[in-house]
Amino acid sequence: MLIPSIDLMGGRIVQLERGEELRLAFDDFEYWITRFARFPLVQLIDLDAAKGAGDNRALIEQIAKRLPVQVGGGVRSADQARLLLEAGARRVIFGSVLFREDRIDVEAAAAIAAQITPERFVAAIDTKAGRIAVRGWREQTEVTPEQAIQALEPYCGAFLYTHVDSEGTMGGFPIEVARTLRPLTSHQLIVAGGIRTQEEVDSLDAIGVDAVVGMAVYSGILAT
Length: 224
Description:
By secondary structure, the chain is an alpha/beta fold. Helix content is 30%, strand content 30%. The protein has helices at 29-36, 47-50, 57-64, 78-86, 106-116, 145-152, 175-181, 198-206, 215-218; strands at 2-9, 12-17, 21-26, 42-46, 69-72, 91-94, 99-100, 103-104, 121-128, 131-134, 139-140, 158-163, 188-192, 209-213. Helix 4 links the parallel strand 5 and strand 6 (91-94).
C-alpha cells in the first residue's frame, strides 16, 4: 500500500532532504487534500513540532477532518495524542518519547498504550546510520531498529521505519532492510525514505510492507 505523506513546516506543505534541506514547498492545501482523498491512509507530520520550533496544530485539525490520517511530530504524551484523536486522527505516531539515554523506554510505551490503546499507537523507529535518531533526527542513540521493534512490539499496533539516510533523496529505499525487519513484528510495518517508483512500492507490498511516499509524489515522478 502506498501512503502519501503531508509534511508541515511554517504553515506550508514541504519536502526536506534527509530531514534538513528544504527542497519543495506548497501552499495549495486544497489541491493536495483532494488528490489524496482516495487513499485509505495518509501520513501527516508536523516538522516544526518535531524540531521544537512551534507547531501547525490548526492545519493538522483541518486536514484530519477531511483525510484518514496518522499524525506525528513532537507528540510527547498520551494527552496530546487524545487531542489529535479527538480532532479526527486515526492513529498517532510517537518517536522521541520512546527513547531515553540510549535505552528504550518501555514504561512510556506501556503508559501510552494503556491510555489510547495499541491500535491507535504507531511507534516510529527513525534510523540514521543504523541507529535510532530522535528529536527531529538531530540526536542519535545507540539503539538499533531491531532492538526497538522487539521491545515495543507488545505496546503498539504498527511500526513506522524511516531510513533517514535516504529520506527525500529519491535514491531508492534499501529493501533488504525491510526484509530484515518484517519477520520481527506481527504488526503493520510501514517504511519511508527515498522511495521513487511504483515498482518499489509493489516490491515492498509483496513482502507485506507498506510504503510512505513524499518527494516522488510531490515532484511528479510517481503518479497517484
